[in-house]
Amino acid sequence: MQTARFAAEFGRLLRRLPHFSARLTVDIALTEKYRRAVAPASGHVLYTVEEKVMAALDLIVSGGTIVTPDGRRRADIGVRDGRIVAIGTLDASAVTVEDAGGLLILPGGVDTHVHLMDPGDTAREDFPSGTAAAAAAGVTTIVEHTHSHPVRTVTDLSAKIEYLDGRSDVDFGLAAHAWPGDEDVVPALWSAGVAFFKVFTCTTHGVPGHPAAALRTHLAASAQVDAVSLLHCEDESLTESAEAVLKAEGRTDFGVLTEWRSRDAELVAAAVAALLVRRTGARATVAHVSNPEVAEYLLAERQRGARLAAEACPQYFLLRETEVHEHGALRKFTPPARARTEDDEVQMWRLLRANTLTHLSSDHAPSTLEQKSNGDVWSAHFGLPGLDSTFPILVDAAARGHLSYEDVARVYADAPAKAYGLWPRKGRIAVGADADLALLDPTAVRTIRNQDVLSKAGWTPFDGRAVSGRVVKTFLRGAVIAQDGHPARNRSGRFVPGAGR
Predict the structure, then answer these.
(1) Within 10 Å of residue 204's Cβ, how many Cβ atoms?
(2) Following DSSP, what letter does each residue of 226-284 receive, concatenated?
């Protein structure tokens, strides 16, 4: 009866169409059940469900274990025109068949907090090198914003999209910078396709901070069009006063960092921002949450109804607060590392697993070793490279039992894609999604090394760290963009607009 009912309903649908649309796709699980139930509609030559879905595939990834946030299953993936059109046991031919036996197939990474300094002074990084690093690691989509060359108008956005044509190995969204007093531009930029608005609560990287009143004004404006903001939370009154005292004392040692960019400065700004997000009805993410205390404050506001995400970064799990004394500028990023013990690290993994920390990004903001060595604690560049290392660290965390591979798919693909309007096209393995795939050998063991870094930085804070698991092949829209750590450098990445467009 169910088969007959399906056949009747599907037949009525087909008879309304002048031809069987090539865009009509179904999951292979349905195809296997109902493939013989549909007869050609009168007056037209039509295919059965099986025949149409299975015809002329560009790619089949066969024999792998697909990992999604909901679980794993052994299945083949059929791809046509860059999109997934079938998942299941596929008895079909394709231009290319990729044997994924013994491998896990994860959605390509979606890293939504990336700085590539391009356009602008690209001595530290640019799109070709940064996205090559992303592709080799298994990342297929990024969201980028550059502090030294900010997007503040629709004209800026259009010019940047045009400039980046042919410069990216992965698909990319772009963020705008919020400027105090410029909230009138929010609707136009949102409808033009920015993924989010970057908002600082303290003046950093030459971008002016938003005190509470200005932040509330921005959030209220963004709420009117349901735009998303990414909030860098450090309280300017606290960082300014600490800087004045420390400079008056003549301090130039790198131990200054944790006193200057203190725990209290982050917590105060995050707590105020979270409250304002709830009170204005806006949508926002608090960037690079550094410690459990901040995460718990954000969770409390989310439980009161705030539409608020909490972004994590690997440096707040694996690097220790005291390392700045040994490594100096190579540990200058803000907020600084907060973990003091292995128990602190374990607690951060627990919060990520429990969705208190909602997703993970690299906050890739590299400088070369030479650039980092120029100047003292006050003048050396902020930031760390991260696109080379973030996916490897996540899959290693799964191997060590801190996360599951399903968690990796959630926090580095599904959740960030949903947060910034890139889902359902990005961040998932499902019929209709882009065929962005990371094929992972979970048994591989390697060491993260400076000499393997593809970013212009040429170094990583995780140098010498042994990790389990390796992405052996990366697909972007069904095409190989990296294999065995080597990017294809085919520059096929495209701009992906945010939810407002």
Answers:
(1) 17
(2) T-EEEEE---HHHHHHHHHHHHHTT--STTHHHHHS-HHHHHHHHHHHHHHHHHHT-EE
What pLDDT, on a 0 to 100 scale, did the predictor assign at position 370?
Answer: 94
Residue type, 30: L
What is the rounded distance in angstroms from the CA atom of residue 367 to the CA atom of residue 382? 8
Give the N- to C-terminal CA distance of the chain in Å, as an integer: 43
Is 488:473 a contact under the CB 8 Å cutoff? no
With CA atoms as reference, report the closest residue to 433 among 443, 447, 442, 423.
Answer: 423
In terms of residues, how long is the chain? 501
Q: Which of 98, 26, 69 is nearest to 427 (CA)?
A: 69
And the tokens for 312?
């994590």
User: What pTM was estimated for this model as a whole?
Assistant: 0.89
Phi, psi of 442, rounded to the nearest 5 degrees: -75, -10
pLDDT of residue 374: 87
CB 33 within 8 Å of CB 53:
no
Q: What is the DSSP string of 32-82?
A: HHHTTS-PPPTTS----HHHHHHTTEEEEEES-EEEETTEEEE-EEEEETT
**Residue 41 pLDDT exceeds 70:** no
Joined tokens for residue 188: 């136009």
β-pairing, 479-483 with 283-286? unpaired
Per-residue confidence (pLDDT) for residue 205, from 0 to 100: 86
- Interstrand relation of 104-107 and 437-447 (parallel, antiparallel or unpaired): antiparallel
Between vectors from CA 259 to CA 257 and to CA 262, what angle results, nearest 5°? 95
Q: Which residue has the higher pLDDT, 260 or 23?
A: 260
What single-letter amino acid sits at 106?
L
Dist. CA 391–CA 369, nearest whole Å? 22
Q: Could you report the per-residue pLDDT of 374-386, keeping only the tens digit for each?
A: 889 999 999 999 9
Q: Of the candidates 413, 474, 472, which has an alpha carbon nearest to the alpha carbon of residue 70?
A: 413
Q: Which are the contacts of 4, defined by CB distance < 8 A and separation ≥ 6?
A: 37
pLDDT digit string, tens, across residues 319-344: 999 999 999 999 999 999 999 999 99
Q: Answer whether 158's CB lies under 8 Å from 192's CB.
A: yes
Other beta carbons less than 10 A from residue 305's beta carbon: 11
Q: What percent of the chain has pLDDT over 90?
A: 87
